[in-house]
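Exam review. A common question shows you a sequence with its C-alpha cells and asks you to describe the fold in words. Practice with the pair below. Do the first one on your own.
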Amino acid sequence: MPVRALILPLWLCAASAWGAEPPLTRAEQAFDALEFDAAATAYQEALEGPGSRAERLKAWEGLALARAFMGQPQAAQEAFEVLLVLDPEARVQASLGPKIRAPYEAARKALEGRRPVLTVTRAQDGRVVATLEQPRPVAVELLVAVRQPGAAGFTAVVGAPPGPVAVKAAPVRAVEAYAMARDAGGAVLFEQGSMRAPLRFDALGAPPPAVAAAVEAARPRVVEEKVEERHRPLWPFVVGGVGLAAAGVVLGVVLSQPAPLALPPADRTERLP
C-alpha cells in the first residue's frame, strides 16, 4: 500500500486521540455557526493536509462561500475556479444572493468552459506517456506507472504537470498502466486507470526471435489427419454398365418391332364363277 494511503488514517487517529476534530469538521462547524473567518482558516488547513477528492470538493466550496460572505469577492472567485476545475458541474444556490452568485459567475466566465484533461498514450519507442492539461494549477504532481501483464508490481515515475511524464517499456511487449494527478496534500484529483484496473496497451511490433520461439513452443498443436479415400474396384460398375447397355439394346429391339399387319376378314360367302 502506498505511504500516502496510510497518512490519512493515522492522521485522523492522532487527531481523535488528542481530542481535536479534523480540520474539515471544524471548518463546517464554524461555517454553520456563521464564524466565516474561522471557517476559512480551517478549510485552508484541511486543503493542506491529507484527504480524498470528495473532501477536497467540500473544502474548496466551503472556502469559496466563506470568503464571499466575508466580502472578499476576488478570493472567493479564485476558490470557485479551483472548485470548477475539479467539478465543472458544481453549482451554487440562487437563493444565496448576488454576494455569492457574482464571484461564482465570474469564475465560470474566467474558465470559459475549459476542463482538465489527463491523457495516457504509448509512444512508438514503447514508452507510456502521461500529460495533464488543467485550466488552473490545482494538481502539482503527476504519476504514471507501468508493468507487464501478470507482473506483481508497477514501475512508476513522478513529475510535475503538465508533463510529459514517461516510463520506459519495450515496444514489443504489451503493458498495463495507470496515471494519477495529486495536489500538495496527496489527494488524487484526476486519474486514468488504476492499480486494480489498469489501462492496457498492445505491443507495437514483432517480438524478438527468442520470445517468439517460446510463445510458439507454448502454443498447443493442432494435428490434422488427412484420410485418403481408397479406390474402389471398377468392375462391378463396368459389368453392371454392360448389362444395362445390353438390356437397353434388347428392350430397344422389342420396343422397335413394327406393329402387326391387320387384314380384313375373308368373305367366305363369295362363290367362284
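Now try the second one, then compare your answer with the model answer below.
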Amino acid sequence: MAENTAEVLTGAAVLAAALGFLVYAGQGSGLAPASGSYELKASFRSVEGITVGTDVRLAGVKVGTVTSLALNPQTFFADATISVKDGILLPDDSAILISAEGLLGGSFVELQPGGSFENLAPGAEIEDTQGAVSVVNLLSKFVGSGSGGDTETAP
C-alpha cells in the first residue's frame, strides 16, 4: 500500500510540474493576455510570415505582441491587432510594418514612431502600414528580368 501511495504522489508531482511548464510557456509565447498593455489595430495587404504571438518591436526592443489576425472580407486586407506595453506612447502618425530578421530569419512587426504631438489612443488604428515582402516573389522577378528581352544572334 505504501508503494502505491508513493507512485501516486510522484505522478501528481510530475503532472503539477508539467502543468507549470505549460503555463510558463503560454505566457512567454504571447498566448496569454498581456497585463499592463493596450491594443492597437492595423490593416495589411499581406501578413505573410507573422502569426498570433509574433513580437512587436520598437527600435529593436520587444514592446508587445500580435494578438489577432483576421481577413477583412470587404477590403481583402488582413486586419491585425497588437498589444503594446503601457507607457509606450506612439504618435498618431506612426508607421507599422512587417520586417524580416534576414534572408533566412523570422519575421516580426516593427513600429516606427512619427513626429506628431498627438498620441494614438488605445484601440486606435495605425493608418501607415507596410505588409510583408515575399522574398520568393522578389527573386522570381530578379531572375525573370535577366532572361527576357536581349537575345544575341550568332554571326
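Model answer, second protein: The chain has two domains: 1-32, 33-140. The chain has two helices and eight strands. Full marks require stating both points clearly.
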